[in-house]
Amino acid sequence: MLLRLFDLLLTDPIAFLALLPVIAATVGVGLVVAISVHEFSHALVAYQLGDDTARLRGRLSLNPLVHLDPIGTLMLLVIGFGWGKPVPVNPYYLRPGPRGGMAMVGLAGPLSNLVTAGLIALPMRLGVYPWHSPLLYAPFAQRTWSWLVADVLGYVIFFNIILALFNLIPIPPLDGFNVIQGLVPRDVGHGTFSRLAQYGPMILLLVVAYDIFTGRGILWGLLRPAVNATAAVVVGRPFF
Length: 240
Hints:
The protein contains 11 helices and no strands. The chain has one domain (2-234). By secondary structure, it is mostly helical.
């Protein structure tokens, strides 16, 4: 995300320095809201299904300080996708059973982000604030309150959508893996998928590193159309 400001740094360094703290703070609001809602929802659903682990460890909270993962947050801030600190869950305490329970807990985070994005988008949908994408236009290009509010809301909407869609990728430790594992037949879930779990984090990090260092954008190439389609439903217009 902040990489987009490098062009401004090269063309107008003074404007870059003036806008950087404001944009960073605005982006930070979007990050904090998206990650806090996402991880809290995991903890809440696990608690409702009978697992008290997250509550006992202080994760049944909307306090962002207990949910922010330094590397995952940095990834969201810089390149546009990332993650929060995983919520501890004991699948054997979940009432539907380990597989079904983990699928429900895993789906709770992305769904909560999509619901949050929809609620935040209501002022644009109702015409209270004119919608513009902060990713398509220069942030704070117009110094008016309506433009400023639209920028802030736009970043909150974007990070909620991207956090939901990124986490639905079926690669461990992302939520999509738990969802898929709970839906496939038991022998597949305990066989192929269980073996994949140990390699998932390495695969994910390699793909992210490849995207960063080569600029090929494998993940972003997959996520961008999904983000645009989701934004078109939530806000009425795509981000890009």
